[in-house]
């Protein structure tokens, strides 16, 4: 046996492991970037439909009072879309910047005092068009606490949880978003009126690449990423089925 074979074998093993780690990292990055990107794409699509309707009305030989009212409605819809796109693009830029810093070993930025309600409202703005199709959001903000956090990554946690809730309800239902304090901890609950989480899924929700979505929409790592980010913030996440049905995700974070 050639004496260098074991070394060659171990090198090959290391290369395979590096490739697996790289693949896992790329899937994670793709998932995090895809979430706000898909919001921007769907909003642009909605604005394009508005432009089509606008041209359809303006092509009329004479505009009636009803046409003018329709134009005002279309323009209002387009006005709603601009801050959604701006917020989505800002989030994408911030994510890319944080990922670049991490890749250079410089960290993704220090945790700073952040208004938790501001983070939640920013995410709700991003999901404006997905929510307005048939989902009511009930805000139960008992307090408006400040937490030490990386604002972009914390926002990604709630963006993932809220989009999961929207998809679980197939676009129709109610999301109850609660914020309260428990001692020195802040507790956020994201509850939906969907079908809930099957027992066999619930037990391993945060521990493996498990998804109930189709391959085009689910990678099975969103909730794993949520848990990882929250642990970096000194927090935690749990999931359960509500007493009246639907899923309930509970996030805890230390107060600033």
Helix and strand pattern: HHEHHEEHEEHHEE
- How far apart are the first and last residues' alpha carbons, in Å? 62 Å
* Oligomer kind: single chain
Percent of residues in beta strands = 15-25%
- The number of distinct structural domains comes to 2
- Mean pLDDT rating: 80
**What's the main sheet like?**
5 strands, mixed
CATH architecture of the largest domain: 2-Layer Sandwich
Find the CATH topology of the largest domain.
Answer: Heat Shock Protein 90
Taking Cα atoms only, what radius of gyration do you get, to the nearest Å?
Answer: 22 Å
How many alpha or pi helices? 7
The number of strands is 7
Structure, explained:
The protein folds into 2 domains: 5-103; 112-254, Histidine kinase-like ATPase, C-terminal domain (Heat Shock Protein 90, 2-Layer Sandwich), CATH 3.30.565. The protein has a 5-stranded mixed sheet. Mean pLDDT is 80; it is low at 1-12 and 212-220. The N and C termini lie far apart (62 Å). The protein has 256 residues and is α+β, with helices and mostly antiparallel strands. Helices cover 55% and strands 18% of the residues.
